[in-house]
Amino acid sequence: MLYVAVATRTFRRYSTYVGATVAGIFTNSVFGVIYSFAYLALWDQRPDAGGYDGSDAVTYVWIGQALLMTVAVWGGGTTDDLAERIRTGDVAIDLYRPVGMMGWYLAGDLGRAAYHLLTRGIGPTVLAWLLFDQFDFPGSVQAALGFVLSLVLAVVTSFAIRWLVACSAFWLLDQSGLRMMAGALALFFSGMALPLVIFPEPWRTIALALPWASYLQTPADIWLGKREGLDLLAALAQQGVWIAVLLGLGQLVLRSATRKVVVQGG
Amino acid sequence: MALIDATDLSRTFVVRRKDAGRRSLRRRREEVHAVHGVTFSVEPGEMVGYIGPNGAGKSTTIKMLTGILVPTGGRLTVAGVEPSRHRTELARRIGVVFGQRTTLWWDLPLRDSFELLQKIYAIEPARYRENLDAFVTLLELGDLLDTPVRQLSLGQRMRGDITAALLHDPEVLYLDEPTIGLDVVSKGRLREFLRTLNAERGTTLLLTTHDLQDIEALCDRVIVIDHGTLAYDGTLAGLHGRGGSMRTLVVDLVDEAPAISVPGASVRRVEGPRQWLSFPADASAAPVVAAVAASYAVADLSIQEPDIEDVIRELYSRS
Amino acid sequence: MADASVVRAAPRQYAWIALMWIRAALAYPASFWTLTVAGAIITGLDFVGIAIMFTTIDTLGDFGLREIALLYGATGVALGLADMAIGSVEQIGHHVRTGSLDTMLTRPVPLLVQVCADRFALRRLGRISQSAVVLAWAAVPIDWTPARVAVTLMMLVAGLGIFFAFFVAFSCIQFWTADASELANAFTYGGNTMTQYPLTVFPREVVLSLTFLLPVAFVNWYPSLYVLGREDPFGMPSWFAFLSPAVALALLALAALAWRTGVRHYTSTGS
Asked: Do C60 and A183 touch (CB under 8 A)?
């Protein structure tokens, strides 16, 4: 199938940078170690902060390091290719392709995510398992399967938001400022900077309702067994609703951008 | 004194290759002689073509001449100094143009790039203005000075690059594939400019190229390098003799005829009434023409000079 | 090679190149300001994260929020200045791959100056000022004496020197493997993140390695203990507080060595 081919091609493209991958795994691991100790100090003071214990906190840190690149929290991925193609005008070629443009880029981004999961996801995770007794794998099959599903939804959510940011290049001369802002927001509200569960109210509730919670907090909570049974389904449903909204918005933006390109010639 | 003096110049690279024969991950160290015992010298004011097939050692030589790469053997001096030891010092006296990539700052307008170069090379303001004016006029860059480099076409960029390499009045200009990717008009203009530069300022030029028309238009002297060794050093005319090259006499007969047979020439091709005869490039055409005209009814005659590309191909295949 | 005139000319040459990039950046003011503000916000959120921790706790590793703010501000200013001044050195691998390193080698300006000043980003002032604000907030309750002021200034300069050395030294790896630019991040940004927290959150072995092996502890930890008037929790001698400049100089010397080795490797293999 076409989309599988697109995904495979992107996977291969990323897998040519071996040196970068090894360096990245190392860097992720260094940050994982730093945050693990910082969080352990926090949970040492308040052993039940956010409903986590120290072991949950350490596991959370390493899930975060594993997902940082996989979910492309900072930005990057095929949406960067899109922004570049909009800038150069090559996007016109994409617009006339007979297949859906969004599906095309999404398939590519899933291929990229698969590569990053297998390398920069699994690399630090193995290290965490070796270094920290507190690091735990999912406690049940339900948690493991739920995590995988939630992770796929996380990548799609992140893709949808990055898509919107990249499409701003249709109207803005230089979208790097917006891209950086979006990265900062994602970093904070995904729970990458600090687990959303220890935010004070009402910020905790607000942050958990935003789409960025999908990136890390939701999959991590499923991994940790904090959301089980119906609650797990509710978590996945929330991710699904945001995806529907954001992809719909993305489609709308693309349509008006297409009109702009067709009418004004770019 | 020679401006460039290379004696027995060599450059060996050590590469690690996977052992093909055995099924092992062990890599074999292998020495590659990119440049091997090359000796030549260039006098001030010369225009020299440095040619050879891909991987022959041209770029390696240019890198050594500019001091980017340290030779592994032999002696090399440019303007009296050893390039790799005095790279920064030598930089003020040479200009370099790489055809495949720009030496300008990609995101900045040409004018900013030039102004920065003025400071970097400590070019006197008066001299800088004079040079800039001259090159901008000669290379028709006037309207492009405020355009960022990334928006320039290849030809425009190349003109910008050449200006950048010349603002500080270098004694020698190295051009690595300067006409690559340019259209015919741009190529012609560039060659014209380089001729003028050499004639008016006496700038020594050393260029590597794949386009032998560059050589024919510019260089009195050619150095041919192949597999890292010097295959030829001399005039372009001499190269024809060396290569055992042939000139071609194209004969249009009144009627179709079997292959012409005359002494000193042989038929290479017959097509209807037209026949192609080749004879050695260093022999006179007169006896051949006379012999053909004496035995056949000729409608028209013309002589084709040997193609330098064929000559060089011939040279490579023999070395 | 590095004779006096070359060294004397270097700052001026650096300034020319940097100025040109500043002018180019300011040609698009909207873009410049969004990037500057975004930079400040990104690092600012770091501190917001730490502040949020303190809504559930009173001390982290036995340090209060104001005390952590001093550590955070000092390492942030030092890293920010180093990043602005020479952060571009991380692009060596890119220069190797695209061949622009060869172009730089044919110019009469030291390679390090060219690489560091390339794409000079004034927008990093955003992050620096954010760190400076946190530092100022931390400074309010401190009982300032001339000695503490002097140690604080020394801390910032030495911290800059240490990060400077890290940027250069770890970027040199790219002379051998051109696509490993992210490796340096583990030491520069990683070192910055590590020193945002009081080292008491780490086990003793980690603190020992951060003191003797990869001495980021001298960026802010030891001088800050002096400024805060605290005993060393790990029992290190109190004069470690004044050792930072010496550590910075030693690291700079090592970085210079790494740089020369890297350039020599490049000019002797051409790849």
From this structure: no
